[in-house]
Amino acid sequence: MGEEEQEDEMVTCKTNREKEEKEDDAIATEAAAAAPYCYPTLRFDIPPYRSYHFYQQFRNASNPNNFLKSVNWSPDGSCFLTSSEDNTLRKFNLPDCVDTTQEDTCSSSLEDPYVADLIVNEGESVYDYCWYPYMSASDPTTCVFASTTRDHPIHLWDAITGQLRGTYRAYDAMDEITAAFSTAFNPSGTKIFGGYNKSLRIFDIHRPGRDFEQYSTLQGNKEGQPGIISAIAFCPSHTGMFATGSYSQTTAIYSENNMELLYLLHGQEGGVTHVQFSKDGNFLYTGGRKDPYILCWDIRNTVSIVYKLYRSSELTNQRILFDIEPSGRHLGTGGQVCCIFC
Fold this sequence. Notes:
The protein is mainly beta.
C-alpha cells in the first residue's frame, strides 16, 4: 500500500471515529434529557437545621415597633440585604466558618449571632431594592445594589463601604423629583429600570443623573397597562422579555429590545405587587395585595391561567412577596400563615 493510500485510510478512519463520537454524544444527551430530574428532598415536618435571629438589631428602645419587611440574597450567595420598617437597609455577611457539629443554639440565645456588616439609612420608606446581577464578593467593583424610596431618586449603593455610587433622578411635569415604585437591573447589568405611574423610565447605569428613556405603558387610544408599575422582573432565559405588575390589577409582558407590549394579563383580584418568572422562563407567577391567590401563567400560551395557589393575604394591603427555590420545584410565600407549594 502506498503512502497516499495510507494517508487516505487514516483520514477515513478519523472521520468515522468522529462521527461515532458525535452519535454517542447525541444518544447520551437524549438519554439525560429523558431521565427524570432528581429533586432535592425538602422536609417541612422537622425543625430547621440551624436558625438565626436578629432581634437586637431590628428592635430597640428607640424603635420598639420596628419589624423586618423583606430579605434579598446576593447573586453570589455570600450575603443578604434586609429592609425594615425603620427605612433602613442592612447587609449581613454569612459567617466565614460555620461549625456544623454544634447544635443549633442561636434560636434560644439572647444575643444576635452576628451583626450587620453594613447599614444604609434611607430618608423615607423603602419601596424596592435589588442587587447588581453580576455581583461577586471577590470583585468589589460589582458589589452594588439599587434602592428606591418615597420622594427620592433611585440610589446606587456600594455594598462594601456604604457610599453612594450614583443617583438616577426622574422628574415630573412640575420638574420635581418623582420616586420609582419598583426597580430592577436588566440581565446584562447595563441599565436600571424604574416603574412609575403609567410609565417606565430606563437609566444607563454608567450615566447617573437625569438622563433617561421614558416609555408610557398606555397607548394613544388608552390601551395598555394603566396604574402604578409596582413590580418588574426579567425573564431568566435571556429571551429579552420582562414583566411588569400594576396596581390596576394587570400584568404586562414587554420586549426589552423595542419595548413592545407583547401580552396583557388580567385575573388578579387586587393590585399586582410581585411578579417572578420560573427558572426556565416558561412560566410567570403573579401576586397581589388583598388577593388570596398567586397566579401561574404559561407565557407561551397566555389565554388562560394555568393554576392558582392559595395563601392567606386577602385582608392586608401590604406587599407580600414569594420566591422560588434553586431547583425550581418549590415556591415559598409570606402571608398571614406562611405557605410552601410544590
